[in-house]
């Protein structure tokens, strides 16, 4: 094949004729802003990914976190415990409520919050714990739920990377007071931009719906000070089509990961916790020495893209700049490398990735 050495991107959104037709259909109605298409997307999202409950569509995953926290009553004077090893939106959303994000270390195997590290930073100001299901692997919700119950804390889930992930058969986004999903183009499914809040709590759902729409349920009868964080019907149309595909794409991601697990040598492949369903938003290996040179060689010598998520822990970023040393977080930031695992990969692509990684690992050893 002529393109057998073509560049393999780290991520690739799949947009087809059905998405284009769905957008066209919305444009033809003239009803562009939040309306019936958004309502359908919400109920279908709940059916496919969170086993029902309330689903509130918003304009981004960050808005989903922010409004979820506000609706759960988080505000000035509160502390919320978050991982530092995540995208900055996690801690940003806490800070935007006026509360203080408190950073805790991760479990080295699964890169998610370590329940013992969380326990060690609980104070009398702690209002809740917000684990991230990083890379599509569920956080240790069994231990975190127990800890939250014992200490009278709320649990919030950053499920931005984990559509359909589960632990012990329970879907992420259903463990805590609320869950937040992102629909950004590189996530496991997209609506262009967008986010979803999932909750079983009627009051959190009601307040989140108010907050996304200027505090109004009834037009011009504003009940509180709110935002315009609505999703449009145009974005919902894209998302509804993607929702019919996401479980198939996840199965393909899992098959791609299984091939990499079975064939990679000389690097640390990502383990899966007992009872966990990993949806492989990222397939993240550890390169113990020389990760950055390894990544450069993957691109320059083998034409394969990859990603480092995340090179700077959040507690080291300028807006937070905390003095604590989070051992496993600092090590992971130096070692992690995410290889392509997306559902568009061909068998030839997978074999090229294996050959390239194994060759580089051997040369470095
Ligand atoms: C993508 C992401 C978000 C934010 O989602 P947006 O839709 O980009 O606002 C939050 N948390 C994590 C862990 C993410 O990966």
From TrEMBL:
Top-level taxon: Bacteria
Cofactor(s) annotated in UniProt: pyridoxal 5'-phosphate
InterPro entries recorded: DegT/StrS_aminotransferase, PyrdxlP-dep_Trfase, PyrdxlP-dep_Trfase_major, PyrdxlP-dep_Trfase_small
Sorted UniProt keywords: Aminotransferase, Pyridoxal phosphate, Transferase
A UniProt-annotated Pfam family: DegT_DnrJ_EryC1
A GO molecular function held by the record: transaminase activity
Recorded family membership: Belongs to the DegT/DnrJ/EryC1 family.
Protein name: DegT/DnrJ/EryC1/StrS family aminotransferase
Lineage, uppermost ranks: Bacteria, Bacillati, Actinomycetota, Actinomycetes, Micrococcales
């Amino acid at each position: 094949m002529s393109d057998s050495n073509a560049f393999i991107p780290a991520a690739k959104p799949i947009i087809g004729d059905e998405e284009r037709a769905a957008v066209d259909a919305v444009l033809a109605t003239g009803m562009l802003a939040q309306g019936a298409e958004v309502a359908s997307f919400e109920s279908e999202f709940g059916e496919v990914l969170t086993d029902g409950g309330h689903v509130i569509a918003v304009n981004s995953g960050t808005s989903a976190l922010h409004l979820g926290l506000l609706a759960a009553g988080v505000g000035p004077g509160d502390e919320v415990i978050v991982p530092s090893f995540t995208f900055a939106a996690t801690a940003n959303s806490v800070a935007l409520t006026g509360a203080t994000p408190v950073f805790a270390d991760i479990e080295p195997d699964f890169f998610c919050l370590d329940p013992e590290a969380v326990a060690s930073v609980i104070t009398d100001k702690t209002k809740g714990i917000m684990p991230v299901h990083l890379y599509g692997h569920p956080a240790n919700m069994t231990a975190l739920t127990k800890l939250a119950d014992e200490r009278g804390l709320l649990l919030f889930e950053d499920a931005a990377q984990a559509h359909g992930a589960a632990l012990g058969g329970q879907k992420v986004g259903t463990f805590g007071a609320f869950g937040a999903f992102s629909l950004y183009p590189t996530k496991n499914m997209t609506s262009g931009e967008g986010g979803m809040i999932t909750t079983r709590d009627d009051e959190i759902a009601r307040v989140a719906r108010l907050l996304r729409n200027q505090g109004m349920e009834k037009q011009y009868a504003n009940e509180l000070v709110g935002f315009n964080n609505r999703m449009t019907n145009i974005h919902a149309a894209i998302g509804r089509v993607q929702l019919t595909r996401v479980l198939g794409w996840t199965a393909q991601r899992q098959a791609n990961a299984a091939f990499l697990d079975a064939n990679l040598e000389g690097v640390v492949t990502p383990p899966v916790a007992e009872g966990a369903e990993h949806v492989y938003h990222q397939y993240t290996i550890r390169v113990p020495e020389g990760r950055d040179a390894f990544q450069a060689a993957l691109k320059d010598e083998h034409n394969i893209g990859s990603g480092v998520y995340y090179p700077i822990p959040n507690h080291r970023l300028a807006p937070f700049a905390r003095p604590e040393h989070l051992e496993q977080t600092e090590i992971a930031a130096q070692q992690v490398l995410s290889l392509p695992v997306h559902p568009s990969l061909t068998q030839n692509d997978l074999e090229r990735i294996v050959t390239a990684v194994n060759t580089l690992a051997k040369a470095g050893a």
